[in-house]
Amino acid sequence: MYLDRIVETKKSEVQRLKETLNISEAKQRIAAMPPTRGFEAALRSPKRSGMALIAEVKKASPSKGLIREDFNPVELAQAYEAAGADCLSVLTDSEYFQGRAEYLTRIREVVKLPLLRKDFVIDELQIYEARLIGADAVLLIAAILPTDRLRQLKALAESIGLDALIEVHNKEELERVLKVTDHGLIGVNNRNLHTFETSLTVTAELATYVPEQALLISESAIRTAEDIAYVGSNGAKGVLIGETFMRRPDIGEAVTEVMGAVSSRIDTEEVR
Ligand SMILES: O=P(O)(O)OC[C@@H](O)[C@@H](O)c1c[nH]c2ccccc12
């Protein structure tokens, strides 16, 4: 199963990381860094009322292969920002998604949006590394983390200023996550990471168990304005979209088509 393979890859990456990054040095460097940008806060007051957008910078995936040939991560991030994304998700896994840590670092220098490091986190060291490369939030995937690990990694992330987006795909995972937290960011992945099957009904089914004070993000396989309306009316407060945008030559146009336009401040003032 490919998720197991990914975890094996991550174990060896962590071993390698241990040779170059030590925790006390990481802590010192982090203490000298500027504060993070408030990933959750940005999603709680989205630019489009009613639906927050995390737009993803993703070149390839194990299920789809190469998604975008003409891939300039910095330009794509700028286009997302101009189109009114609230936050960005940047794939840093190289083996399976053709991402790079360096993409995130470079994007941070030119866009103001909060950034999620999208990777398969299994170890503390990857959390320190996420902060050091310039992330504002990390993804924690319940499918690969026992409940206690989830709790520890979330606490560590928060202790160094990172928000955590905790991802679930079924009720068993969600129940474990709710033992760790009843607030914060809960991502429902519409894609089954074992079979690659997707269905937006996963969001609708799990939303009924997500507490009001948590912020539910519907992830994966969202393509149209109708999809946004569907997950929105079923409890999603935000969406995480990659492929739909990455396949379109004009990213800004694609964002507007799916999400609608951001009404400018001047427009709103004129209405008042
Ligand atoms: O490209 P999509 O179908 O819009 O999906 C984006 C995002 O949800 C997906 O990339 C993702 C969700 N969870 C993950 C975990 C690891 C890697 C990738 C992912």
Automatic annotation (TrEMBL):
| Indole-3-glycerol phosphate synthase domain ranges (all copies) | 3-257
Entries under PROSITE patterns matching the protein: IGPS
Domain of life from the UniProt record: Bacteria
The coiled-coil regions, if any, are none
Give the lineage.
Answer: Bacteria, Bacillati, Bacillota, Bacilli, Bacillales
Query: What PANTHER family does this protein map onto?
Result: INDOLE-3-GLYCEROL-PHOSPHATE SYNTHASE, TRYPTOPHAN BIOSYNTHESIS PROTEIN
Matching HAMAP family, A to Z?
Answer: IGPS_B (MF_00134_B)
Under which pathway is this protein filed?
A: Amino-acid biosynthesis; L-tryptophan biosynthesis; L-tryptophan from chorismate: step 4/5
Catalytic activity entry: 1-(2-carboxyphenylamino)-1-deoxy-D-ribulose 5-phosphate + H(+) = (1S,2R)-1-C-(indol-3-yl)glycerol 3-phosphate + CO2 + H2O
InterPro entries documented for this protein = Aldolase_TIM, Indole-3-glycerol_P_synth, Indole-3-glycerol_P_synth_dom, Indole-3-GlycerolPSynthase_CS, RibuloseP-bd_barrel
- Say which family it is in: Belongs to the TrpC family.
| Keywords (A to Z) from UniProt | Amino-acid biosynthesis, Aromatic amino acid biosynthesis, Decarboxylase, Lyase, Tryptophan biosynthesis
Group of enzyme by EC:
lyase
Task: Give the enzyme's EC designation.
Answer: 4.1.1.48
* Name of the protein: Indole-3-glycerol phosphate synthase
